[in-house]
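# nightly structure sweep
# worker-07 picked up a monomer target from the shared queue
# config: single-sequence mode, recycle default, output format = structure tokens
# input follows
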Amino acid sequence: MTSLLQVEKLTAGYGMTPVLFEVDLELAPGELVALIGANGAGKSTLLGALSGLVRVSSGTVHLSDRPVTRLRPEMIVASGMVHVPQGRRLFSTMTVKRNLLLGAYRRRDQQVNEDLERILGYFPALRDKLDREAGTLSGGEQQMVAIGRGLMARPTLLMIDEPSLGLAPNIVDRVMEIVKAINKDGTAVLLVEQDVVLALDIADRGYVLENGRIVMRGPAADLRRDPAVRKAYLGV
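# output follows
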């Protein structure tokens, strides 16, 4: 498999306390990979380590064969890897348009407005809300703004942390349709998602993280059928 992202023996955590232990993970260009595991397994910590927000004590991260381990977060964004964090983390008193444009703050090209229009194609519900403060939107609309802001950086890899958290089921379905569409259009996605069925339904492959270690990996359909995964995460 040609690698877009290659993570080898990654150990990371907070202060002197490791949370992740020698994690190996790989993702190909244009692939959608699900990262699943129980609460506290280290999924969000892994995304934070990849995006430069969590201290890496050992191991390596390469994006398109370029080392990005321990780069500053803004340099990792510039390299093409963008993190959509859990909880959206929008600037609530700024307008929707301003929040979206903040995703392009490092860009100096002339296609920013063109990309904004393209992203509104994914999220037509935002089109008439561009001048509203982001904090006045529904949870689903805020999640759309967060994903759209990430896309404004033109990533080759978009990492999305728990997009369904706190959303109504019908809104979750819509958000996941958009994630699939973004991936189909060529952006690789690393998805952390509490709804394991949903994640494995849309993913090409998956990794299972337990206590900071990768314990299983494989095609998403195989993981969904695996008895250990079904017992631990699907309740069957």
